[in-house]
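Below is a filled-in request sheet from our internal design queue. Each sheet records the structural input a requester submitted and the sequence that came back. We keep these sheets so that new team members can see what a complete request looks like end to end.

REQUESTER: design group, bay 2
PRIORITY: normal
MODE: inverse folding
CHAIN LENGTH: 100
BACKBONE (tokenized):
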């Protein structure tokens, strides 16, 4: 499985991961809603389970992905400031370039 994290997202994720209550946890990408071949994604902090793969990214941030969820393979995590500040998670490898 693959996951890409942009430079902006890595900066924000590292800030979150440095907080005391996130110690020992790994960033997890979850599917919050899916329909057909399209999914909406969210982030959480979690510990690995039996069905998880720990993906090592080029930003030195590990990400948990559920191996049984094909729509998680190839996700891209970005952090944008406009029009609204926050994380944006897409999966360009599945044709998902943003929420509709």
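RETURNED SEQUENCE:
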């Amino acid at each position: 499985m693959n996951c890409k994290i942009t430079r902006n997202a890595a900066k924000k994720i590292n800030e979150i991961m440095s907080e005391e209550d996130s110690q020992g946890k790994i960033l997890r990408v979850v599917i919050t809603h899916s329909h057909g071949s399209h999914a909406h994604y969210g982030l959480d902090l979690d510990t690995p389970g039996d069905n998880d793969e720990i993906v090592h990214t080029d930003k030195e941030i590990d990400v948990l992905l559920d191996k049984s969820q094909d729509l998680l393979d190839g996700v891209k995590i970005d952090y944008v400031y406009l029009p609204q500040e926050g994380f944006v998670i897409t999966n360009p490898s599945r044709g998902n370039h943003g929420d509709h």
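SHEET NOTES:
- The longest helix spans residues 7-17.
- Helices lie at 7-17.
FILED BY: M.R.
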